[in-house]
Amino acid sequence: MLHKTDSNAILFVGAALGLFFIGGLLTTVAPPLIDKSWNKPFENTDPSKGPTGKLVAYTDQEMRGYRIYIREGCKYCHTQQTRTLASDVARSGWKGVPSPVSTPDEFVYDYRQTFGTKRTGPDLSRIGGKYNKEWHRAHFRNPRDLVPGSIMPPFPWIANNPDELDALVAYLQTRGRAKDWRPDNDYEK
Amino acid sequence: MATNAIRGSMAAPAAVATPEIHSDTTVKWFVLGAVGYFAIVGIIALIIAAKFVWPDFLGSISYFTYGRMRPLHVNGMLFGWLLAADMGLAYYIVPRLCGVRLWSEKLGVATSVLWNIIILSAIVTLLGGYQKGIEYGDLPTPVAVLVVIAWVMFGINIFATIARRKYNQMYVSTWYLMGTILWTAFVYLTGNFATLLPGVTGVNQANLTWMYTHNAVGLIFTPAGLAIAYYFIPRASNTPLYSHKLSMIGFWSLAFVYVWTGAHHMLHGPISQWLQTIAIVFSILLLIPVWAVVYNFIATMKGQWHQLNDNVSLKFLMSGTIFYLLTCFQGPMHSLRSVNAIVSKTDWIPGHAHMAVLGTFSFMAMAGVYYVVPRIFHTTLHSEAVANWSFWLFLIGGLGMFTALWLGGFWQGWQWNNPSIPFIDTVVALKPVWMVRFFSGIMIFSGIVLFLYNIMSTALGAGQAKAELARS
Lengths: 189, 472
Fold this sequence. Notes:
The complex is a heterodimer. Chain A is mainly α. Chain A contains 8 helices and 2 strands; from the N terminus they run H-H-E-E-H-H-H-H-H-H. Chain A has 2 domains: about 1-35; about 45-185, Cytochrome c-like domain (Cytochrome Bc1 Complex, Chain D, domain 2), CATH 1.10.760.10. Chain A has a two-stranded antiparallel ribbon. Chain A is globular, with a radius of gyration of 21 Å. In chain A, about 40% of the residues are buried. In chain B, helix 2 packs parallel to helix 4 and helix 5 (about 140-165) packs antiparallel against helix 6. By secondary structure, chain B is mainly alpha-helical. The interface between A and B is large, with 76 and 82 residues.
């Protein structure tokens, strides 16, 4: 049948789009209708079902920080996903405590997905609460002062701008905090 | 359908048409612009490669920070160079395969002017930090709207030319270019507009982004590149295409299979396991369209390999074919959960991506540019020797970059899988790899400069030769 498309352009267009749309629709429109966790914010009060907690919407300040994260292209070097790999769970952990795996319901309020493709720097899906603001300020000013061997660029225009720095740090502190996974609530501010 | 007819008439329809009917103004605009952007964005590529080795290089100026230059590198190479070159070659190929003039040269030139406005706006907005925050879809929405308009203008021109064709039967390059125009429209709208719809957030947005990003390569650059290779391999070697049936299998399996695979970018990640499995199955099926095409190209060259000695276009085309085979073997293999657990997110991935976009599709586009520029300017190539040098710089620089990133990325992946190694140690371990990548980049950039010099000298020299002729 496809032989006819050699000489019939209209038939060709129909076949090329038809075949494309089968997979196109089934893999884009159908999945969120089938898997409800893509659009339902995380909430759990039962410790037997894993970490408890609730995903809350961003504050205005956190949202400003989120936009700075996008503006500076941070996601081109930092992923935000603790994958179902033992090494990811251990590396996203902190002070000997492994971190929970990332699930779709933790990202429902993300206006730009930041899962990332390349891990030039460490994953940030559980960075929230690991370092305080002073650490972040010094780190943005010159990463190599705190982490020798790092190749992260310096961001003086953020470190020296209190409003932007506060906003960006506020955003970073939300990362991974929907799930309450630290013992004794020992998060840095 | 008789095989002889394909070998005879379908592989060489352009020989029937007289070259004088084509004015090729649009081809000139697109191709010369694309070659210029290749060099300009090549400088950006070198700068970001240098930043891996010297992280403070241009480090304290926000416009030149890595996070803003990387999207400019990606978008500049994809849209400024490669897609513009592919479009320019489409304006050359389609009228010849149809035996008629391009439907409208005026519309074509207007498309080129708009395309230049898009690329210049991209440079300003991306360095200014106005990126939309969607990989490959970084251009801000107003610029993305211009891309859609330009694409519609391009599509109308090509389809109107095809509608008025003199030869009823369409050659495989025409199918691939029609496919490119149709699929790109929907893939681009998905990535740049559907992702911004209200309520599309988080994983939902990521899934749409991956549909776009993956198919930007699979359903834009792959069919455009293959259209070019299907046209120029028989043309440059003066040999009929091996099999019409194989080209049909390759085309229609690509049309069906490619779009299912986006979720393989999030294997082990926070996306439904069943969707990951679907993406894996279809990623393996991708071997069918790839091997059908590669077998067809290799079989076409049977008994003709000696032509590679003194034919630069064929050198680019056949090395591009081998890189296509390799990069499209890597892709399905990366989709296996066990392999993915090692290579995903590492430096292996840019090694793989560069073999696809530079090694395969840019090689095919350069082959086309080397072939058409002397012909559209009615002259000979400025220097065959310089063209040969550019090929070897691209090939050796490319291989240096690809292999350094694969070896380094694989090593990095093994280190990450041992959590007792601190993350920063896995960064420091890769510094020699990034040094090799930088110096390979210098070789590739030198190749770009020689390519630019040769193409521009051919275009300008043709004008001078004509002027001298007019004076005498």
